[in-house]
Design a protein that fits this description.
By secondary structure, this protein is an alpha/beta fold. It contains 15 helices and 31 strands.
């Protein structure tokens, strides 16, 4: 233990220098307040002194009766955020890593300045008044077990990514060699390709999935001995590294040459292009394009039949059910020479959900999400899965694909799900598609890997997509993986490390053209421009141009035309899947007027969806209004705890039931007046994306 490990400084919430009414309870030294808008509370250190150089964390405990958009901590004018604050009636710790700003804090802490350190509470725009309590404000060091490895992992990662120019690799390099196919059988991998006339010796090199692409990451396997400028090399599929059985299915392969400066790449790297598989699970034939999002078993499950549903999404937060050690009730799963543990009670809940859906022949898309360490039930699991460059603004983390142990853990989790939910006997139900993380264009918030450029971000994300694709393909040759994107198209979310969806899709196309195609699709979230206002037909930033800022209900034709463009087709032949996997118009409240506007918007978007051949499904989110949605009421039913009418059917429910049936036109007729049209043809547009 170092000299300063666990050192703490007490912080005081300054109730006198704020306009917010804050009460202090002297018994437990807690603070209580009620907020209904963005609130700032000053903090100051009880005993002003120079801070230990090991101070890296601000920590406090809180209770609140409603979800909160984020807690912010500002040091002078630099804001750090923690998102996804859930309602809790027990004391819950919140830790904010200030290591990037601790020098500034050290400079300011001795000043009598209320701007030095401030706590911000940001409710959702539509939230009612929130009752919140705080206690135990402290400045502290990292815990001993986390101190060294977190800092070192980030340094190692940054030094690694600074060595290679991805843009040059993808767009500016001309390679003399080409790998045509990487075929993976049960025990062997066959790599075939062609070369030009080269006097020096060429080699086949391997870049494991847990290594960033660069010449420094290449492991030379064997010398290439071409015949008529073509070569064919066979390698063992499995190798043992550091006691872990590594499946080279996930590696990329490259032609390389030795130079005076080290290895140099003579081809694009190539991932697996063909793989043996155990099953072919048929995709359920949909009755229509209707779906329900964030599906769980509840008292309203009859909606699957009553609404005529064909698609659902189910969230799989891996950290919730994966354990690093045996627990009282767990399922053991062996992978790569190690045993992993899954919480049996949580897995059985998934079993019940998925089996009930399979019995009704529903298409299921699993959304794969990874919590950071601070939100993980098992901190060891969270530490291994959290990307080393993750920063705390993120609700979820990009998976850690920087070392073998972490990558193997991630693989084990996906392998467990794929083996369980791709059985030919459908014992536990089926998963048909895999949505890889959430709104990756808003990477700073929803799939965080810290401060990296867009190309580095996408190189890592595509590796995560491929890892899930190859793992699930082993059990189902009809598997698909989908990139999750928000409604920002040529605009981007106003947070650090967020990127336009159109740019990410271009990179995805270019990467797969260079390194080998696989069957990916899109899970798009075309919410109205304002998530609060359901009248999407008024969206100003959703235009009919290909470079529109947003794609919302108003201009779905752009997305429809894009997905059907020849350059986007899988292997130039097959249309990729396009799910509208998360969206629904909001009802401002439960008044008749608000419910009519929500229902009218639902009719509006449905007419659009039906006219767009490239859109496969509209999945309504949420199915039931939920308190964690920050006051939004996008559901087809009212809050479960709404005293006057729990789970009550909104007008949108009845409209949704009618969609795709003989009653559709009659039930949607009222919407024309609200929208301001006489005929549904007035909302349709012709789009040219060439």
């Amino acid at each position: 233990m170092g000299k300063h490990d666990n050192v703490k400084y007490r912080l005081i919430l300054d109730t006198k220098n704020t306009s917010q009414k804050v009460k202090c309870n002297p018994l437990d030294k807690s603070y209580k307040t009620i907020i209904n808008h963005f609130t700032t509370l000053p903090l100051w250190i009880k005993r002003r002194r120079f801070l230990s150089p090991d101070i890296n964390i601000v920590q406090f405990e809180y209770k609140c009766d409603m979800p909160i958009s984020y807690f912010g901590l500002s040091i002078r004018f630099n804001m750090l955020k923690i998102r996804g604050i859930d309602a809790t009636d027990t004391w819950k710790k919140c830790t904010i890593d200030i290591s990037s700003h601790k020098e500034l804090l050290s400079q300011c802490i001795l000043r009598d300045d209320l701007m030095t350190l401030r706590l911000h509470i940001a409710p959702f725009p539509t939230s009612p008044a929130i009752r919140i309590r705080f206690r135990k404000f402290t400045l502290r060091s990292y815990w001993p077990e986390n101190k060294a490895n977190k800092v070192q992992a980030r340094k190692d990662y940054q030094s690694q990514i600074d060595k290679f120019d991805l843009y040059k690799y993808l767009y500016e390099s001309e390679y003399s060699c080409k790998i045509d196919e990487v075929f993976v059988s049960d025990e062997k991998i066959r790599i075939t390709g062609k070369i030009c006339q080269v006097e020096d010796v060429l080699y086949i090199g391997e870049i494991p999935i847990y290594k960033e692409i660069s010449p420094e990451s290449i492991r030379i396997h064997s010398v290439i001995t071409p015949q008529n400028n073509h070569f064919c090399i066979s390698v063992e599929r499995y190798v043992i590294t550091d006691g872990i059985i590594y499946d080279r299915l996930y590696s990329r392969w490259v032609v390389t040459i030795k130079t005076s400066n080290g290895l140099a790449m003579c081809s694009y790297s190539q991932f697996c292009s063909s793989l043996t598989t155990k099953n072919c699970i048929p995709t359920e034939t949909p009755k229509n394009k209707k779906g329900l999002g964030d599906y769980v078993l509840n008292p309203c499950v009859s909606d699957i039949d009553d609404l005529g549903i064909s698609y659902v999404t189910v969230n799989f937060r891996i950290n919730n059910f994966l354990r690093s050690t045996p627990c009282k009730n767990n399922i053991e799963f062996k992978y790569a020479g190690k045993t992993y543990y899954f919480d049996e009670s949580l897995i059985k809940e998934y079993d019940a959900t998925l089996l009930s859906l399979a019995q009704k022949k529903i298409n299921v898309s699993a959304i794969i999400l990874l919590y950071p360490e601070r939100k993980s039930v098992d901190k060891r699991i969270g530490h291994l899965l959290e990307h080393p460059n993750y920063d705390q603004i993120g609700e979820y983390s990009m998976p850690n694909l920087t070392n073998l142990e972490s990558a193997s853990l991630y693989c084990a989790a996906i392998e467990f799900l794929a083996s369980r939910y791709s059985r030919s006997d459908c014992k536990y139900g089926h998963i048909h598609r895999w949505i890889v993380h959430n709104e990756v264009d808003a990477g700073g918030v929803w799939t965080n890997m810290g401060d990296v450029d867009m190309m580095q971000y996408m190189d890592t994300y595509i590796r995560s997509m491929r890892l899930i694709y190859y793992t699930t393909y082993k059990y189902n040759s009809n598997t698909e993986v989908l990139i999750s994107l928000s409604h920002y198209w040529y605009d981007h979310f106003e947070e650090p490390n967020c990127h336009p969806s159109a740019h990410l899709l271009k990179l995805l196309i270019d990467y797969t053209k260079a390194e080998g195609d696989f069957f990916w699709g899109i899970a798009f979230h075309p919410y109205p421009e304002s998530l609060v206002n359901p009248k999407s037909w008024l969206d100003k930033n959703a235009t009919m141009k290909i470079d529109t800022n947003l794609i919302t209900f108003k201009n779905l034709e752009i997305l429809d035309a894009w997905i059907q463009h020849p350059k986007v087709l899988y292997q130039g032949i097959t249309k990729r899947t396009l799910l509208l996997s998360e969206q629904n118009p909001n009802s401002m409240d439960y008044s008749e007027k608000s419910q009519q506007e929500q229902a009218a918007s639902l009719a509006y978007v449905w007419k659009k969806v039906c006219a767009c051949r490239g859109i496969d499904a509209y999945i309504a989110h949420r199915w039931i209004d939920d308190r964690t949605e920050g006051g939004l009421k996008t559901g087809l039913r009212k809050y479960a705890d709404f005293l006057q009418d729990p789970y009550g059917k909104k007008m949108a429910w009845f409209v949704y039931r009618a969609l795709g049936t003989a009653e559709e036109d009659e039930q949607c007729e009222f919407a024309k007046k609200i929208i301001g049209i006489n005929d549904w043809k007035e909302i349709m547009y012709e789009i040219d994306v060439n």
